[in-house]
Write a structure and sequence with these properties.
Layout lengths: L17 H14 L7 H8 L3 H8 L2 H24 L5 H12 L13 H7 L6 H27 L9 H20 L4 H13 L3
Length: 202
Amino acid sequence: MNSNSTKPSRGRPKTLDREHVLDVAMDAYWKEDIGNLSLNEICRRSGVSKPGLYREFSNEDGLMKAVIMRYQEQVLNPVQQMLNSETSFREALDSLVSFATSASCHHESPMGCLFIKMRESRMHLGEATRAQVDFLEEQGLATFRKWVERAKVKGEFSADMSSEFAAAYIDAQLSNASSQLTRGEDQKIVKKMLLIAFSMLG
């Protein structure tokens, strides 16, 4: 008997590269129709078995939630930090427009925002992913509202509207810009429209 032989492990084999799977899944969900993208296709592109993916993420809902949480960490959190900084309202607004109208996260990222795309594809999301998207939406609106309130105190916000309405307005304009970019509309035109939409704020 070969002394190097070992009994097959009954535990959980750790051969799956979680970061690679998340990279592949994020790219796929960002570029393609979420409702038409199968878990089998994600497995094929990432070179992992379906049982292996289920062991790591529990199910497709678990994978999608992990993807949007990764996007939150890499893309959304830095934006929130910028809005929570002492940067002037006008400067932060210009930075927000630049962020919203450029490919973010990686240099080869698709145009538009993955979070907004998932929000608009809510019917295709599982319960855990939908709950995370809803949480991020509420968090985003609260960040916009507090940002506007601070700008009002500093005299940097000139529009005659409540902070709640302003937050919803900013969110709606960003969502519209993201949808336009996802459809392939000209980046420079979308940026100009967003700048005009935000020019009334301060």
